[in-house]
Structure to design on (464 residues):
């Protein structure tokens, strides 16, 4: 095992400049000294010393289709040479065709007419969705959201994100949320199957509507004080928690009874991360609004947006100028988004992701059998979780996972004669979950390599 890594002279000069000139408000350094990277390709990034790292988090699932994907990069390059820029008050082909592609897909899957509205990223698109649901509900500013949920750090988005630390310094700006327990079966009551626990959680939520004295509902008018329920179908920052398959169907029934919209936040789990275009598709429900971002452009351009039902977003109810960003629906982003849809339609992309995810999950389950500190593993497509616990296999152990992350970033592990580092992401309610979001283009040998590197980290963690 190597000693703590020392930054090179060139890197140290850059780090000294960062310490003096860069805001720390837009970044978090998980290791010291932070790595400075110089290039990337496929599932790998290289630092300034040309040390390779296998990346199993892919920019928080923004780069679903691999770093420097040639086909998507070429779409961007071609657009730069034709129409790289145009004011959003004017039209271009890419915006219209990408909107059509998303809306027609939603019509085919959910049986609902709808429209697409673009913005520059996930948090900004959450803000737009809040405008849509507030407008549709006569200005209601209260929302339901989940414990463990993450929707962004702009003022509105942080108000419906369950972590108080994101709004502690800034307070609320209009929206407030009632945070409802998520069906986290591994840490739920014992003695219930996963499906029974899902139904139990829905029943606990439905209790709010039994009497006006539970604070959300007026039985005389059959009106709820809350406009919408914001859900991540698979929790992201909360630790890639996968709910029971019956949960959302039963929850949506309660929401529809009381006129509450369901907003599906697909920013991290959309674009085939779970083996389907939208992760909500796994649960046999019709969302009212879908919010997307990140992997639409494979991280090449900040483009996100929303799809909403026609009744919520048609020009009469949501007229021109309701919300706006200078760079929304820009030609570079829409060109890459269109190419991404074409690329994923040429093969059964979902089946490919599900097969790779099954293979990866089986490898994690094998590690779980051999290392008692792995309390839980689960996965849907290539959204996978590995929960690190104490020797009892249950008590959260953040310190051990932090150690594993730091060891992975040393770049000193050896597999088949190749020296490598491993990039992992940390999530979960107790920051003890490895949230695995590898490239959807990852090869089976790279999955095996990732498992071997994880095994080395687990050996280090349990023998230190």
């Amino acid at each position: 095992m190597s000693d703590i890594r020392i930054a090179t002279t060139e890197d140290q000069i850059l780090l000294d400049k960062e310490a003096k000139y860069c805001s720390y408000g837009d970044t978090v350094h998980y290791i010291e000294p932070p790595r400075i990277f110089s290039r990337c390709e496929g599932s790998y990034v290289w630092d300034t010393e040309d040390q390779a790292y296998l990346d199993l988090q892919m920019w928080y699932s923004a780069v679903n289709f691999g770093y420097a994907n040639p086909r998507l990069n070429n779409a961007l390059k071609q657009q730069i040479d034709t129409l790289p820029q145009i004011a959003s008050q004017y039209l271009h082909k890419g915006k219209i065709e990408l909107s059509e592609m998303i809306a027609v897909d939603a019509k085919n899957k959910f049986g609902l007419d709808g429209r697409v509205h673009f913005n520059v990223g996930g948090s900004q698109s959450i803000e737009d969705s809040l405008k849509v649901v507030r407008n549709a509900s006569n200005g209601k500013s209260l929302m339901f959201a989940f414990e463990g949920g993450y929707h962004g750090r702009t003022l509105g988005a942080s108000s419906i994100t369950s972590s108080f630390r994101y709004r502690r310094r800034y307070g609320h700006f209009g929206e407030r949320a009632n945070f409802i327990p998520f069906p986290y079966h591994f840490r739920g009551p014992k003695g219930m199957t996963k499906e029974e626990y899902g139904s139990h959680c829905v029943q606990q939520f439905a209790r709010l509507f039994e009497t006006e004295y539970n604070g959300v509902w007026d039985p005389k008018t059959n009106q709820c004080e809350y406009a919408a329920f914001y859900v991540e179908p698979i929790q992201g920052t909360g630790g890639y928690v996968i709910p029971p398959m019956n949960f959302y169907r039963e929850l949506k029934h309660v929401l529809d009874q009381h006129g509450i919209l369901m907003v599906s936040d697909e920013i991290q789990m959309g674009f085939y991360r779970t083996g389907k275009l939208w992760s909500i598709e796994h649960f046999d429900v019709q969302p009212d609004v879908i919010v997307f971002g990140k992997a639409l452009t494979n991280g090449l351009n900040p483009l996100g947006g929303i799809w909403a039902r026609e009744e919520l977003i048609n020009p009469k109810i949501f007229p021109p100028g309701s919300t706006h960003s200078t760079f929304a629906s820009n030609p570079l982003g829409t060109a890459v988004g269109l190419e991404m849809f074409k690329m994923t339609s040429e093969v059964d992309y979902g089946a490919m992701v599900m097969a790779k995810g099954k293979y990866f999950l089986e490898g994690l389950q094998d590690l779980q059998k051999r290392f008692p500190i792995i309390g839980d593993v689960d996965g849907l497509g290539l959204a996978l979780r590995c929960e690190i616990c104490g020797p009892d296999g249950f008590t959260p152990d953040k310190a051990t996972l932090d150690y594993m992350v730091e060891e992975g970033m040393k770049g000193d592990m050896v597999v088949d004669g190749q020296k490598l580092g491993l990039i992992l992401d940390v999530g979960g309610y107790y920051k003890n979950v490895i949230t695995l979001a590898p490239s959807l283009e990852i090869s089976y040998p790279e999955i095996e390599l990732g498992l071997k590197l994880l095994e080395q980290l687990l050996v280090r963690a349990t023998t230190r």
Summary: The first strand starts at residue 37 and ends at 41. The CA atoms of residues 89 and 321 lie 10 Å apart. The radius of gyration is 22 Å. The chain has two domains: 9-68+348-463, 75-345.
